[in-house]
Design goal:
Layout (H helix, E strand, L loop, with lengths): L1 H17 L8 H5 L1 E3 L5 E3 H7 L5 E6 L4 H16 L4 E6 L4 H10 L5 E4 L7 H5 L7 E5 L5 E6 L4 H11 L1
Parallel strand pairs: 3-4, 4-5
Antiparallel strand pairs: 1-2, 3-6, 6-7
Length: 165
């Protein structure tokens, strides 16, 4: 009986920790360079600073990702529902031109950056990217409110943004 009880505690503790949300970006992720639409480099930290004072939703996506494309109407609805929230799109497309075409084809408004080493590269690893679309919500002070949300978490994101307003 004691062994069963200990196993249950270990299992619950492990599950609880695996679902924990990070509260800040790693120093490593903040120094990583992304690419602007003008094909210049910018650090992730500079991107975050650019939106300081605003609630910001970051979406990591790709034009080839069917789940990302399917979620775009929900993202656009969120943009309509929260006009004072900034939206930042980070693409893991495999090529600069594919990324540019994806922005135009999906009629995405907001700030756009390209992650040149893709989903499994240094930046992706530094933010623990294992699925796209991936959403991150940042408060007005630049602190992470939601570190890891996916396309099924829109209700959770709506509630969090309303709390932050």
């Amino acid at each position: 009986m004691k062994k069963i009880f200990i196993c249950m505690i270990v299992t619950l503790t492990t599950l609880g920790c695996s679902n924990a949300q990070d509260k800040e970006f790693s120093k490593e992720s903040l120094t990583k360079k992304l690419i602007t639409p003008e094909n210049t480099e910018i650090s992730f930290q500079e991107i975050i600073k650019k939106h300081n004072g605003k609630i910001t939703v970051i979406e990591v996506w790709a034009s080839w990702c069917s789940d990302c494309v399917k979620a775009m109407p929900k993202v656009k609805q969120m943009q309509n529902d929260f006009p004072n929230v900034d939206f930042v799109f980070l693409s893991v497309d495999k090529a600069f031109d594919k990324w540019q075409n994806g922005i135009q084809n999906n009629e995405l408004t907001g700030d756009h950056y390209w992650i040149p080493d893709g989903m499994k590269g240094d930046f992706g690893q530094s933010i623990k990217l294992n699925w796209i679309p991936r959403y991150i919500v940042i408060d007005k002070t630049g602190k992470v409110a939601i570190y890891k949300a996916i396309e099924t978490d829109f209700e959770k994101m709506y509630k969090q943004i309303k709390k932050l307003e």
